[in-house]
Amino acid sequence: MATRSQTAAVLLAGALALAACGSGGSGKSNGGGSTAQGGGRTLVIDTSFDLKTADPGRTYEPTGLIIGKAAYETLLTFEGSDVTKPVPALAESYELSEDGKVLTLKLKKGATFADGSPVTADDVVFSLTRVRDMKGTPSFLLDGVEVAKTDDSTITLTSKQANPALPYILPNPALGILNSKLAKSHGATADSQDKAEQYLNSSSAGSGPYQIESFNVSSQVVLKKNDKYYGTKPFYDKVVIRNVEAATQKLNVQRGDSQVALNLSGDQVTGMPASLSVKKTASANVIFLFANQDSGISKTTPNAKFVEAVRKGVDYAGLLELAGEGATQTPGVIPSQLLGALGADQATKRDVAGAKAALAASGLSNPTVKLEYPSELTVNGLSFQPLAERIQANLKEVGITVDLQPAPVTTALDNYRNGKEEMGLWYWGPDYPDPSDYLAFLPGKTVGLRAGWKDGADKAASAAGDKAAAAVGEDARKQAYADLQKQLNASSPFVPLIQPSQNIVTATSVTGLEYHPVWTVDVADLAGK
Amino acid sequence: MSAMTSAKETADAAPRVRRRRGAHPLARFLFRRILTAVLLAWGITLVTFVLTNLVPGDPVTANLGQRALGDPAIVAQWRAEHGLDKPLWEQYALHLGGLVQGDFGVSQQSHRPVAEDLAQFVPATLELAGAAIAVSLVLGVAFGVVAALRRDRLPDHVLRVLSLIGISVPTFWLALVAFYVFFYRLQITPGSGRVDPAIGEAPAVTGLQTVDALIAGRWDVFVSAVGHLITPALVLALYTIGLLTRFTRSAVLEVLGQDYVRAARAKGLPGRVILFRYVLRSALVPVITVAGLAFGSLLSGTVLVEAIFAWPGIGQYAYKSATTLDLPAVMGVGLVVGVVYLVINLIVDVLYGVIDPRVRLQ
After folding, report:
1. Residues A8-66: pLDDT tens digits?
2. Which residues in A lie closer than 8 A to residue B209 (C-beta atoms)?
3. Chain B positions in Cβ-Cβ contact with residue A6 (cut-off 8 Å)
4. What DSSP string runs through B192-259?
5. Using CB atoms, which residue from B57, B68, B179 is nearest to A410?
6. What is the pLDDT of residues A109-118, one digit of tens each?
7. Which residues form a coiled coil (chain A) (predicted)?
8. Same domain, A308 and A411
9. A433 with A520, same domain?
10. Which residues in chain A are contacts of B176 at CB distance < 8 A?
């Protein structure tokens, strides 16, 4: 018996030793866990990756745009978070012709790529034509735009129709300027035969303040400072962007393991300690409801009075409560940051009696409709599920029975895209911060068709759209887009709901953070104390 | 259990084979198993292909932006680029033809060859799962033996409760709680990922961070890598530890009551010899069957653990591939996991022969 217990004791001791050994090791590595050691200042940003590539010509995902913004420069850019006015970047000035068709840009002198070679007009022509003709996701940004070099420092962009949105499109990091010689030597071409993506994923060929040190599409991207950057040098020597799930992001930033967390929901940012600052900004994503106008899809939803009942029946304030602090109601389809957005005073208010009256006038009695939405999708940390449930409850009060039909996003998107949803709950983020992006909501256009709103279905809306598209000059455009949205609120199948809040948590040591509707965050703007 | 019977069948056939051809029975056994494994692997490719194509949803919608989706030229170009414009049978034939040459296709999300992606992510998971397997074997068997030797006394009760917890607590929840308690509250473990971002990774040679750190002579990376490995590996191992404790306990108890153990004890052999040569050797046979199966389930656990600890392994890759309908990647992961299962089963069968001579000599 004695020997048996000895053996057991040895085994147990071994197990304990192993465990002790384990915690010893972790303790040590924790000691080395601070940032800013050895090789200079390091910034760690945690985000839920939405990333496919670091090739600007193929980039269209939020995480990709953060990287693109850091590694490449565009002709024009935006100052801070203000997207109403494009400012010079690689181009020192720009001028739009009176008919809105020709945009002339003067290149800045002295701009250089990371290898020291100058940024030339040829690089610009190559980069922009490549995006347009490679037929990648962002190629629509330059659809029908002719790029030409007039002299060594002048570029003209010519569109067939008035294109006053172009200066607002050019800051998109997808239109970053490549070092064409370097890119071509690694297989870049200005058509769909392009083979440069692998190279551009491993090292960047831009003139931005950072370069890509390592790139892993599902775990982390490391940016290092571009030592030859000709502009103001960024503060951090190294920026590590990690793919971290939201709950873990919260603990990492609270513990100081990371300095920035990008994807926390309204609930997750409540009660943060004083050592962290929380920036809550209404995002530019607009969540909206639509009622399909195609009588082949539904006998109920094409009824104009039914849409009115829905519009008046939704409790917008209640939805905002769900979305948390920082969220805002969207008066029209255009988000608050953009030119032409409607003022908060023009927002639709809940009117249950009005909704009931509209429903009575529709001739429908106790209608039942299916509401489809992406079940697992979150926009700025806000899930669609509670929103859909709240809308269901709101409309029940009015007398409309809503049958909730959640589906995984890839499945739901299929139905949505093909215009097969009776009612849908979706969101639209601006492809570029110009109101013309929202012409997609018109009859016969991308989003309009998804709501079964065919070309010619609403002459007044189409006319207002044409007027807005043709308007040139800030004031004229502002007015035209405001008019368009009022028209859409009166007769379209779309009910704009809210812009959820983008919550960014940073260590208080990090300064200079601005939420940007296009690239979320410009890492070169960040500094430390 | 099927592994056991097949091993026995082979063992039955073995003496005759040896007489007839002179081939070593183990070689013959391995040959047959590998042949079956190849057939099974082919079956896996077929099943994953059919399943991934059966799920509703169009990969195009998962991969292109809303604007790009509105442009038929871009959609057509994307389909052609990924071979989705071809009929299904042709897609499968191409896929299989590529596999034979080691080409898994190109991932739609990373735009890289799936083989390259796998080569990058599999080592990270192997490191995590390997650590978990080592820990669970050592602790699971040790706990089981201790519980059996101390039957119905305090250590037994404690270990049985612990193993019950290990088996019943969901890995996902445990990972969250462990991260919260050890990283955030107690501050004794490092955060997510494989190494500290400020230290940086060692140059990839094997893909195993701890090994690469040693190769590069980077002691700081090694310490950081081991530290980052501990919590996720323990979380992952807990289920297997619980399972192995229970099975080892009952197996050891059964053997302890056997006449030959009593005889050994009666003739005065030291307890150590009795435990290792008599008891453990017989008790391990059923334990190995369970261990083999448990390690298979450990792989599915990595999907959840990797998500919580931001561990850049095949679990995260599989999850992302599945949610974005990245068919080549899903099929690649399916095949790799399937092959791992096959290999583990093969090892279990071979170990039978090593541990229990009766399997060979019958």
Report:
1. 444 444 443 343 333 333 333 333 333 444 468 999 999 998 888 999 999 988 999 99
2. none
3. 271-272
4. SSSS-TTT-PPPPSSS-HHHHHHHHT-HHHHHHHHHHHHHHHHHHHHHHHHHHHHHHHHHHHHHHTSH
5. B57
6. 999 999 999 9
7. none
8. yes
9. no
10. 247
Q: What single DSSP character describes residue A118?
A: B
Are A22 and B145 an interchain contact pair (Cβ–Cβ within 8 Å)? Answer: no
Per residue in A311-320, pLDDT tens? 999 999 999 9
Do the chains contact at A36 and B199, CB–CB below 8 Å?
no
Do A107 and A31 belong together in one domain?
yes
A1 in any annotated domain: no
- Burial (CB count within 10 angstroms: exposed 0-12, middle 13-18, buried 19+), residue A239: buried
Do both A101 and A21 map to the same domain? yes
Backbone angles phi, psi at A288, to 5 degrees: -140, 165
Interface A-B, measured as beta-carbon pairs within 8 A, has a size of 221
Whether B13 has its CB under 8 Å from any CB of chain A: the answer is: no
Does position B251 have pLDDT exceeding 80, yes or no? yes
Helix orientation angle between B114-149 and A2-31, rounded to the nearest 10 degrees? 140
Whether residue A359 lies inside any domain: the answer is yes
- Residues 271-300 of chain B whose Cβ lies under 8 A from any Cβ of chain A: 271-272, 274-275
Tell me: do A272 and A312 sit in the same domain: no
| B65 vs A: CB within 8 A | yes
- CB hemisphere CA count around B168 (13 angstroms): 6
Q: What is the CATH number of the domain that holds A246?
A: 3.40.190.10
In a domain, A2, yes or no: no
Question: What is the count of structural domains for chain A?
Answer: 2
CATH of the domain at A429: 3.10.105.10
Transcribe A130-154 into DSSP letters. Answer: HHHHTT-GGGGGGTTEEEEEEETTE
What does the block give as tokens for A106? 């003067």
Convert the pLDDT of each residue in A273-303 to its tens digit: 888 999 999 999 999 999 999 999 999 999 9
Could you say which of B59, B223, B275 has the minimum Cβ distance to residue A25? Answer: B223
This complex has an ipTM of 0.77
Q: What is the pLDDT of residue B359?
A: 66
Contact B61 A248 (CB under 8 A): no
* Whether A409 and B62 lie within 8 Å, measured CB to CB: yes
Q: Does residue A199 share a domain with residue A99? A: yes
> Which residues in chain A are contacts of B271 at CB distance < 8 A?
2-4, 6-7
pLDDT value of position B272: 84
Chain B residue with CA closest to A35: the answer is B198
Residue A493 lies in a domain: yes
The tens digit of pLDDT for each residue in B96-107 reads: 888 888 888 888
Q: What is the pLDDT of residue B323?
A: 80
The answer to whether A199 faces chain B, any CB pair under 8 Å, is no
Q: How far is B325 from chain A (nearest CA, A)?
A: 8
- The secondary structure of B267-325 as a DSSP string is TT--HHHIIIIIIIHHHHHHHHHHHHHHHHHHHHHHHHHHHHTT--SHHHHHHHHHHTT
Residues 162-201 of B with CB under 8 A from A: 176, 179-180, 182-184, 187-193, 196-200
The per-residue pLDDT for A426 is: 95
A55 and A185 share a domain? yes
* Judgement on whether residues A131 and A153 belong to the same structural domain of the protein: yes
Mean pLDDT score of chain A, rounded to an integer? 89
**Domain that residue A511 falls in:** 7-280+503-528
Q: Which residue has the higher pLDDT, A68 or B35?
A: A68
